[in-house]
Structure formats: structure tokens, C-alpha cells
Amino acid sequence: NAATWESSAGQLASVLGPACGGLLIALFRRAAPVYLLDALAVTVVILCLLLIRSKQPEIQVSKSTTLRSLMEGLTFLRKTQVILASITLDLFAVLLGGSTALLPIYARDILRVGPTGLGVLQAAPSIGAVGMTLILAHMPPFKRAGRALLLAVSIFGLATCVFGLSHLFWLSLAMLVLLGAMDNISVVIRSTLVLTRTPEEMRGRVSSVNTLFINMSNQLGGFESGIAAQLFGPVVAVSAGGIGTILVVILVAALWPEMRNLGRLGQ
């Protein structure tokens, strides 16, 4: 449940933040109040962090250099196949299925919905993710988490394909909502695996490697989508990325049987 709500916080902010910013700019007819409000929000966050009082467990933490710590995290992931498989799935799904990077092209040239439609399209994945968070928070834990993850990423790839081929605004919007919902399932399962399958003394290093790979795939995914759209057109770029995501799911399921057989999380 903690992983579920943690993953939804950023998604909810990505929906409400731009919407509130746009309303304030329209109301005041300038951006200065938005920046002032942003600075106030950061100040509140810093104050909240200063108020946190935590109890540190008695564990042996390595005091090695940053590079060595990173290599220790990579070594642990290599030995822990189920976490490695989940990170691989998420990494390549984002890398290949980066349809959101091409939303401006779709809004202007394919769906022809203009700036307002683009704003709705950009909010759709986050709306799907928040909706899935509410569902997961009230569901019992996955009995077959591995199969759920493989299925979620497969549907993510399929939704990307349909979005790439669609010329209907409502269908494209529905696929983006579905895409965000499936991505949230992946995030929740992966985050829970990192929390439950990693020893206390390794958790920081493994979380760092996980964050590094996922953030890197977000940026590289947008770059890859742009290059592919330039060479082959946006429709082929997005659709091929969805197909590639499905192929990665098949490959991961074949290479890591631990993922296929993963049962209830936390056990």
C-alpha cells in the first residue's frame, strides 16, 4: 500500500500542477505568481523534511566510494533475478514505448485537436495512473505478481500500438489512460520488490541503481522516439515501439522464469 500511494503522488501532482499553473496564469495574466507559489511550496517541503524524526536501525552500512557503491548495487541486482527482470521490463517499456514524447505532433498533425487537446492528452496517462492507484489500494495483494507485471507491460505495449495507429481523439485518449494505468501497476510491483527483496544495508544502493536506470530510460525514450519519428514518421515510430515492448515482455518471460513464477509480494 505504501508503494502504491507513493507512486501516485507524483502522478497526481503532474495532473493538478500544470492545471493550477495554467489557471493562475489565466487569472493574473502573468507567470510571476506561479513562481512565487512554487517557491512557497518548496519552502514548505523543506520545513516538513526538517520536522521528520526517524529511528535508524543498527545495520552495517558500507562506507565505500560512490562508484564502488554503485557497482555493489549492480552486483546485487545481477544475483537477484526477479528484481533485475522487473527493472528490465520497466526500462525497455519506457525506452521503446515513449509515445508521450510525440504528443505535440499527434495533437497538431494527426488528431488535429490543438493546444487544448494536447493538454488533455498529456494529462491522460497520469489520470489513468491515479485511477489505478485507487483500485490497487482497495484490492488484496497480487497472488501472482509476476504474471500481473508481465500482463501489465504487455497491455502497455498494445495500448501504445493502438494509440500510434489511431486517428480518433477519444480512442487515443482512452489508450493513454490505459497506458498510464498499466505503467502504474509496473511501478507498484517493482517498487514493492525493491522494498521487500533487498536487505536493509543494500536498499539505498539498489534504489539508486533503480532510479538511475528508470530516469535514464525516460530521457533516452524521448530521444529515441524523436529520432524514429524523424526517420520513419510518428505513426511507425510509436507503433513499432509498442511492438518492441511486447517482444521485450516475451524475452523477459523466457529468460527469467523467476518472474513468471513470482507469487504474492512480500513473501
Structure description:
The chain is an all-alpha fold and 267 residues long. It is 81% helix and 0% strand. It has 11 helices and no strands. It has helices spanning 2-28, 32-51, 66-79, 81-96, 103-110, 114-137, 145-165, 169-197, 203-232, 234-255, 257-260. Helix 4 (81-96) packs antiparallel against helix 8 (169-197), helix 5 (103-110) packs across helix 6 (114-137) and helix 7 (145-165) runs antiparallel to helix 8. The model has no long low-confidence stretch (mean pLDDT 82).
Question: Secondary-structure blueprint of this entry?
Answer:
Layout: H1 2-28, H2 32-51, H3 66-79, H4 81-96, H5 103-110, H6 114-137, H7 145-165, H8 169-197, H9 203-232, H10 234-255, H11 257-260
Radius of gyration: 20 Å
Distance between the termini: 15 Å
The average pLDDT score comes to: 82
Order of helices and strands: HHHHHHHHHHH
Would you identify the regions where 5 or more consecutive residues have pLDDT less than 50?
Answer: none
Task: Please give a handful of descriptors for the protein shown.
267 residues; mainly alpha; 11 helices
Could you write a compact summary of the structure shown?
The chain contains eleven helices and no strands. The protein is mostly helical and 267 residues long. It is globular.
